[in-house]
Amino acid sequence: MKIAFHGAARTVTGSKHLLTLDNGTRVLLDCGMFQGMGKETESLNSDFGFDPHEIDYLLLSHAHIDHCGLIPKLVKEGFRGKIYCTPPTKDLAAILLEDSADIQRDDTKFINKRRAKQHLPPIEPLYTEADVAMALPLFNMVRYGEWKTIAPGLEVCYTDAGHIIGSAAVHVRVTENGKLTQLSFSGDVGRYRDVILRSPEVFPQADYIILESTYGSSLHEDVFNTPDQLLGWIEKTCVEKKGKLIIPAFSVGRTQELLYFLNQLSLERRLPHVPVYVDSPLSREATEVVKSHPETFNSRIQKVLKIDEDPFDFEGMQFIKTVDESKQLNERPQPCIIISASGMADAGRVKHHILNNIGDKKNTILLVGYCEPNSLGGHLMAGRKSVRIFGDFYDVKAEVGTMHSMSAHGDYDDLCQFLACQHPRDVKRLFLVHGEYDVQQEFQRRLIKKGFADVVIPEQHQVFGLE
Fold it and tell me: Would you say 163 and 107 are in contact if contact means Cβ atoms under 8 Å apart?
């Protein structure tokens, strides 16, 4: 048996790990799209590093695009196996993949106009809505905590990872030649004491672990101070400077958290009378999916639901639907809050809002989560004085703020708590994925001190044998 790492290897995006059994069965863990990798992005997404025809099963941890975004391309190039995931992940993946196809169509059209002027041949999108439609019937639902036999000698079980609704750690039991081997893949590990979701669950002892490491060298700020931090940015930007507060936010998870905190401020009568616009059709659909799965909420939100039937809605909040409505937001001079996707500001409507508001010092761009260093959000977070948007450079005159308390990824303490159910000496090898290499090296040293004897950081396309 062997494992190959074809994504999220010494980087935080493009999650893809291929498990090959001794009998030739091939199981793919996630099929994510590379995002925010600059000029490398296109080439990384063009070649899987394996033949899609040869994949038998796909085990999906959750619905974020960097974990599921290349599924339609996988199907387009020959995959016809079953895709296993939790019910909320299936619901979210459907709308996220359709949105991804729309974004690629629009971005490709824009890029091809420029290529035509340069007398260059047109390019094709990675996949279309038709490819998404072919992929969706392959999804099969697995509920948390149930071992499911998907092939002779091959079982899978999902446990709640607490990252977004439906997110799971994926556990695989392989029985070959009378020997049982268990491999656990963390997916993305959420935070303990999350304001909305349940904490990550304990899981059975594993022989091999594939662990995400996004924040493996740092600690987050206390999430329960987040409403006050958010209020501070609103008062500074919208009340004092009379400007616009632009918040890039992922449509799944981050947008709902922002709406929950704003609703909390509204219930406490602390939210200034400033219009709040959620400018992302996908965010509107995702919020409806989130609300349709209250079983994923923690006990705190269950109590809130007894007094507030919709903790993601409040007076003054409006979802923007059409492109024309979105453009009108940039024409209005009045203070407002605009929450728009994507979270790394590398695609979607938020890119246009940043372009139109980055040149005015009374405005603020507030980054509320992880941004890959090569993404637009990463460049803003790094303090660049000039950034490139749609091929042109713009001076950064607007204030750029960050709120690290809102990350949906667990920090060093959370990741160690996630591993606390394991006996380190019984783990034959622990693979670190989904992290920047310098962060992973520091996390590697800490895990070795905690008793995990063999901790490795795979390179892209590297293959390892499993005993």
Answer: no
CATH number at residue 138: 3.60.15.10
Q: Are 184 and 29 in contact (CB under 8 A)?
A: no
Are residues 382 and 447 located together in one domain of the fold? Answer: no
Both ends of the chain: CA-CA distance in Å?
Answer: 7
281-326 residue pLDDT tens: 899 999 999 999 999 999 988 988 888 889 999 999 999 989 999 9
DSSP H or E run through 417: helix 412-419
Contact 81, 205 (CB under 8 A): no
CA-to-CA distance for 177 and 183, rounded, in angstroms?
Answer: 17
pLDDT in tens, 247-275: 999 888 889 999 999 999 999 999 999 99
Q: How far is CA 447 from CA 175, 208, 425, in A?
A: 28, 14, 12
Over range 214-218, report the average pLDDT. Answer: 92
Based on the domain organization, do 362 and 414 belong to the same domain?
no
In whole angstroms, give the CA distance from residue 111 to residue 115.
Answer: 6
Compute and round to an integer the Cα radius of gyration of the chain: 22
Degrees, nearest 5: CA angle 141-76-134: 45
Partners of 172 in the β-ladder: 156, 183
Give every CB contact of residue 133 below 8 A, 6+ residues apart in sequence: none
The mean predicted confidence, pLDDT, of the chain is 94
DSSP secondary structure string, 102-115?
Answer: HHHHHHHHHHHHHH
Beta-carbon-side half-sphere exposure of residue 349 (alpha carbons within 13 Å) = 27
Query: Which residue range(s) make up the domain with 85?
Result: 2-218+410-465
Spatial CA neighbour of 379 closest among 409, 351, 339? 351
Are 21 and 151 part of one and the same domain?
A: yes
Count of CB atoms situated within 10 Å of the CB of 352: 18
